Structures are given as structure tokens and as C-alpha cells.
Amino acid sequence: MGEKQQWIYICSDAVGETAEAVAKATLRQFQGGEARIKRFGQIRHEDEIRRMMEEAAAVGGFVGYTLVQPELREMIKSESIRLEVRIVDILGPMMQAYADTFNDSPQWKPGLLHELDDDYFRRVDAMEFAVKYDDGKDASGLLAADVVLVGVSRTSKTPLCIFLAHKGIKAANLPVIPEVKPPVELFRADPSRIFGLTMNPEHMQHIRTERLKAVGLPGGSRYASAERVQEELRHADELMKTLGCRIIDVTNRAIEETAGLIMEAVRRAT
After folding, report:
1. 30, 47, 87, 187: most buried, per Cβ within 10 A?
2. Alpha carbon distances (Å) from 224 to 48, 178, 185, 245, 253
3. Which of the 8 DSSP states describes residue 179?
4. Does pLDDT of 256 surpass 60?
């Protein structure tokens, strides 16, 4: 029999993105970090917490939560004691530190991170931008973007653009192909806003081979050959050096980590 599945439960009176992001970051620190994450968002009633905690107890999991309403916070603590389920208060210590340090009180209002404020609409605009200017579909986006990503196929350009859009950053991306001349707009864009994505050739070849298998194509095609991969990476490296942009090796990097490097560079440049 196989090992028992491990579970992490996420509980929030908002959408639970913050707690889930912390859980995923935690899993990456463990070589065997294969626990599954189950998220319960928009929690409003004590009965919802009771049912979730009983489910977590039944599978031997633990719970990370971002609850701000006092009655819900007390409920999850009491259920933790009753059911002997470990809980992790992800938001509470930070809120308490702020209150103690600056002599202030929280609003105790769930979902403040997702109110329809200027940041929300900026993220929506950035998401629409990422879709419109994905994969070099419209070169004019290279001049309008906050960030331009260039790289060969399978360097995670599109997922990075989507992640950056969630942070309110308008990102466009352009695939680098030896047989295709880059648009003039790329050379007119500010080099400080351009980021070249590269990867270890062997790792790239493996990713491409697996991608072909996933779509039902033979893994031995030229697209995944060592010669083609090296040719594309050399061509991309020459282009990036010509542009004078920053080059980021994304081999074994999580999307969040690469995005963090980009966002930090953007902050320093502004």
C-alpha cells in the first residue's frame, strides 16, 4: 500500500490566496513536499469552520488560516483544541505586531485585499494587457509594457506575464526564434524594462520532450533535439546581449521567484 496522502487545509473569510501562497512556499522547502492543498474561502459561519476542521482531523492534516473576524478566529481555535488539529494563524501575528507597535486597531473586515479599489482595476487592466500582447501577437505592446520578456519556447514567458499581471504589472512577451527577425519595436523599448529568459540546455530539452509527449507528439522531433535547443539558446543569448537587457536563468526557478527578481529590478529602475 502507498503512503497516506498528506493534506494542508486553507481557511479564509476572504479568498484564501495569501494563505495558499504561504503553504506553497512552505512545500517547496521540503524534498518530499507533496501534500495537497485544499482551500476553503469566503467563510462566514462557525458551522463552516466546524465541518472543515472535522474533515482535516479525519485525514490527519493541518490548517493554515487568514481569518480576521474575532468570532471565527475563536471558533477555529476551539475546534483545534477539540479535534487536536494543528492550526497556523498566518495573518494574526502580523496584525498584532502592527497594533502593538503603532498603537492602532484593525478594521476586522474580511477581504480588504480584494476590494474594488485602484489596485484591483490596475490588475484587471494588466491581465487584459498580458492576454492581448502574449507571444508577440502585437508588437506595439512591447513599447506600452511595463515589462517585456523575451526568450525561446518553454522559458515560462506567458505564466510569468500572468503572474506579473496579478501584481498590476503590464507585461508583454516575445518568443525568440532564429528564423524570425524580431520586430523593430523591441529595439526601441527601454532596455531596463526588457528581461531575457534563458535555461540550461539539458533542462530545456527535457521540458520540451515532456511537452511533446503531453500533446501526443513524438519526443524525438527537432523541436526537442539537443542541437535545436542549443541553436535557439545561442541565438537568444546574442539577441539579449545586443539589447543590453538583464538575463535571468530560469532553470529550476519557480515562477514566483523569477517574478520577484523582475519586480525588484523594476522597483530599482523607477
Report:
1. 87
2. 49, 15, 29, 27, 20
3. T
4. yes
Give the integer Cα–Cα distance in Å for 203 and 205.
5
Nine-digit cell string for 220: 524525438
Best CA proximity match to 53, nearest among 84, 31, 29: 84
Residues 6+ apart with CB under 8 A from 106: 68, 95, 98, 99
Query: Rounded mean pLDDT of the chain?
Result: 89
Residue linked to cell 527578481: 261
User: Hey, is 69 helix, strand or coil?
Assistant: coil
Distance CA 195, CA 165 (A): 16
Residues whose CB falls within 8 Å of the CB of residue 56, separated by 6 or more in sequence, listed in order:
7, 9, 62, 63, 83, 85
Q: Which residues of 163-192 are buried (b: 16+ CB within 10 A; e: fewer)?
A: bbbebbbbbbbbbbeeeeebbebbeebeee
Beta-carbon contacts of 253 under 8 Å, excluding residues fewer than 6 positions away, are none
Residue where the block lists cell 526588457: 194
Rounded to the nearest 10 degrees, the angle between the axes of helix 157-166 and helix 118-132 is: 160
